[in-house]
Amino acid sequence: MSLPNDDNMSAHSQLSSHFFEDLLDSIIVDVASECHRVARLGLDRNFEEEEEELRLSAQARARVADSSNNGETNSKYVVDIFGQTHPAVANEIFECMNCGRSIVAGRFAPHLEKCMGKGRKARLKVTRSATAAQNRYTRGSPGSSYSSYSNSTGMNRLSNGASSGVAGEEYSNGSFEEL
Amino acid sequence: MRNSVNRPPTPDAVEDQEKEPTLQEIINIKMIESGEKEKLMELLRERLVECGWKDEMKALCRAYIKKKGTNNVTVDDLVHVITPKGRASIPDSIKTELLLRIRAFLASAAL
């Protein structure tokens, strides 16, 4: 009695694996065709910027690494009330929560601009459906779900770089209230 | 005396080609008909997005496209680029989950 069962089991597992591979292959083809479409239609706004950003990040990191002693003699010789000096480029390196890259804090604000969208260029980031893309094209309606950066079209800099991902309304004087 | 009367019977070429559907095919049909295949596909897609697999594959694609140049890449190329890594980097938990569901279906379909 056990033998037919065993045969059944292994035939079943074989069939299951085969079927799973089929599903996986279909999904792989989907992903490939999606990437192909995005590349050919030029929808990926980050495409050319990646290398530029990597270069700038590496630059920032280099500056942090070797100028930490020369912070005093560089352009910004600022001593705060505790007698501390601050390096020209902020030290810490951490991960962007949007795209997952490691960014030096001093480069975080410009990075977020590109990553999340300050204006036309980054705003046209690729999305799955055309309707979602159209939502992004309409500017600055505070009630929309993109309100966290939709009002920053007039500003070129995020005020403290810490406004990412927080759902709140940004007023034009730069202050920021959480609902 | 007409030749047509003694004509040899036409060979059973047509019948020979229609083999019995394999077990594989039967299962496939059952899966599609019951809607289970669609559900499994959606489940797998969701899991793969959650665990970042899809993003990894997209990154691979972008890197390849950058190397080759946007206009020289075909979907076929990309499929061949992704498939080995894609198959290998599936997390075990996802694979197990899907396999269990498939097997449950096989059992319930009394095959």
TrEMBL record, chain A:
A single Gene Ontology CC term: DUBm complex
Keywords from the named record: Activator, Chromatin regulator, Metal-binding, Nucleus, Transcription, Transcription regulation, Zinc, Zinc-finger
One GO molecular-function entry: zinc ion binding
TM segment ranges: none
A Pfam entry, by short name: Sgf11
UniProt entry tagged with the keyword Zinc: yes
Entry-linked InterPro entries: SAGA_su_Sgf11 (IPR013246)
Chief location bin: nucleus
Region (Disordered): 128-179
Compartment(s) where it occurs, according to its Swiss-Prot or TrEMBL record: Nucleus
Low complexity bias spans: 136-154
GO biological process terms, semicolon-separated: chromatin organization
Family: Belongs to the SGF11 family.
Protein name (database record): SAGA-associated factor 11
Organism: Citrus sinensis (Sweet orange)
Lineage: Eukaryota, Viridiplantae, Streptophyta, Embryophyta, Tracheophyta
From TrEMBL, chain B:
Ranges where the record places region Disordered: 1-20
Gene Ontology BP term (one): protein transport
Subcellular location: Nucleus, Nucleoplasm
InterPro entries tied to this protein: TF_ENY2, TF_EnY2_sf
Domain of life: Eukaryota
Keyword Transcription: yes
Pfam families: EnY2
Keyword Transport tagged: yes
Membrane-spanning intervals of the chain: none
Keywords, ordered alphabetically: Activator, Chromatin regulator, mRNA transport, Nucleus, Protein transport, Transcription, Transcription regulation, Translocation, Transport
Any one GO molecular function term: chromatin binding
A single Gene Ontology CC term: transcription export complex 2
PANTHER family hit by this protein: ENHANCER OF YELLOW 2 TRANSCRIPTION FACTOR
Family statement: Belongs to the ENY2 family.
Functional description taken from the UniProt entry: Involved in mRNA export coupled transcription activation by association with both the TREX-2 and the SAGA complexes. The transcription regulatory histone acetylation (HAT) complex SAGA is a multiprotein complex that activates transcription by remodeling chromatin and mediating histone acetylation and deubiquitination. Within the SAGA complex, participates to a subcomplex that specifically deubiquitinates histones. The SAGA complex is recruited to specific gene promoters by activators, where it is required for transcription.
HAMAP family, sorted: ENY2_Sus1
Subunit structure: Component of the nuclear pore complex (NPC)-associated TREX-2 complex (transcription and export complex 2). Component of the SAGA transcription coactivator-HAT complex. Within the SAGA complex, participates to a subcomplex of SAGA called the DUB module (deubiquitination module).
Name of the protein this chain belongs to: Transcription and mRNA export factor ENY2
Annotated organism of origin: Citrus sinensis
Highest classification ranks of the organism: Eukaryota, Viridiplantae, Streptophyta, Embryophyta, Tracheophyta
